[in-house]
Amino acid sequence: MFPSSFIKHRMSRENQIETVQKLLLPLLPEDVFLVEIKIKPINNIKIYLDADAGLGIEKCIKINRALYKIMEEMAIYPDGDFSLEVSSPGVDEPLKLHRQYLKNMGREVEVLLNNDEKKTGKLINVTETDISIEFTEGKNKKAVVHQLTIPFTDIKETIVLIKF
To answer: CA–CA separation, 20 vs 31, rounded Å?
Structure first.
């Protein structure tokens, strides 16, 4: 067993992320899933979670407290020199996981393709290999509804559009 100071100085960012992930995953309720873990050089750990039915702040707080306690007890960061933030990705963050696409079916999305072309429409279908969006061209009697299937391999990023 290595002394905890060895862990602090020798553990790569990738190993730190892997360690935090192993501790985190058993704490997540079934409907909550990990989107991303980021660790800044000052040991500021940011964990982004999402949930199939929405992620309230109460769940984030509960998970944060439980994970923080485990990390402190294990002395992963000696002298407690770390901070931990657990939240959902911001509304302007692109979708990263297939599960996020499924969760957002029925919502308006903007898809940026690899060729930098943008497509906007309602996300109507998600498969393992592609998404389908529905959009309307023209107005009133000349309005025509189109469907477009876009392979995931052609997508640079997808952002959910918030309508007020």
So the answer is: 19
